[in-house]
Amino acid sequence: MKKLIFRKILKDILYFFLLVSLSVTLIVWVIQAVNFLDIVSEDGHGFDVYFKYTLLNLPKIFSRIFMFMFFISVFYTILRYENNNELIVFWSNGITKKSFVNVIIIFSLFFSVIQILFTTYFVPISQNKARSYIRSSNIDFFPSLLKEKKFIDTVSNLTIFIEKKNKNGSMEKIFLKEDIDKDTSQTIYAKEGKLVSQNKKTYLKLFDGEIINIKDKKINTFSFSETEIDLSKYKTKTTTYPKIQELSTMTLLNCISFDSIKLFLSSMKSKYNCKNNNTKIFFQEFFKRLYLPLYIPLVALVSSIMILYSKDNFKFNKFKNIIFSTGIFLIILSEITVRYFGTNVDYNVILLFIPLIIFILIYSSIFMFGNNYLKK
């Protein structure tokens, strides 16, 4: 009977968590997807890249709201059970409040494991995959980028200016400047031009113009009646190299293991910026993935101690508000403390023990000062 009762409340917590977290994730994703429209409108990528990139941000959003949604789920479910007098079923069947708190804590460990899987595996993989679409994408949305009387520098090392853009797609008085390297550049001026697509590539056809090549301060000029520029060779200015958040957890671990994996670091240094003066960043990202889930049992404990007071107690509303505020404070504390991880091992150990120490203090205080309530 006791197992059936606990199974009921744990299912309610799980179902409410899934409903609320998925709903909030979708809302945040829609808002974020609107912001990501810059990928198309300003960076020139196609809509297929946009949709793949935005969809792969779902795991990251879900992971970011995970702990808060879990806290809300436990808090709301216990509050609902209390308001509906359903908690009486637990006490009348011989379940102590101590056992109730312990079961909620054990249940929270399952969520901690899920969160660790997301932060250490699913999120880095999805973020790196999303970046790979940007990395492998050409500028395939040039028609929307080219606007009248506006300098366009979306692509790397290339600036385009158009005096007039006609309704039929043709353009007039076109100016292009390409910076090939430090001492070499090419400037092209054409009276007319148009975009053409061929073999899944975009070309800019220019008519009646002049090309000016500058190399080592020497100028070479010649005219043309028609020329063609392959725009597919140009890359976007959008960041294409992996960010810290997109690196695998093993890569992060290797980046902070300078003494044992020096050979690995020498090959990864240029690609991932794995060097001594950036060690703190790698420490922070690595510990954030493993550290934040440690707060999930703590917020579960805080939520579950709401059973100490009955709704008929005049202190219940005040106690309820204190519990909710404490839970929010702990979530904020987890985000703040992760920013202080660094290369100092002793300091990191202290930060790692903060959630454990708070957990022990709250848990022991309940059984010391709230013993009379927990036995009921």
Descriptive overview:
This protein has 376 residues and is an alpha+beta fold. It folds into two domains: 269 residues, no CATH class; 92 residues, no CATH class. Helix content is 57%, strand content 16%. The chain contains 14 helices and five strands. Strands 1-2-3-4-5 form a five-stranded antiparallel β-sheet, with no helix packed on it. The longest helix has 40 residues. The radius of gyration is 29 Å and the shape is elongated. The two termini are 19 Å apart.
In a nutshell, what does this entry contain?
The chain has 376 residues and is an alpha+beta fold.
Outline the secondary-structure elements.
Elements: H1 2-35, H2 38-41, H3 47-55, H4 58-83, H5 87-92, H6 97-136, H7 142-145, E1 158-165, E2 171-181, E3 184-198, E4 201-215, E5 218-230, H8 249-255, H9 262-272, H10 279-291, H11 295-304, H12 316-337, H13 345-369, H14 371-374
Helix pairs in contact: 1-4, 3-6, 4-6, 4-11, 4-12, 6-11, 8-10, 11-12, 11-13
Question: What features would you highlight for this structure?
Answer:
five-stranded antiparallel β-sheet; alpha+beta; 376 residues; single chain; elongated; 5 strands
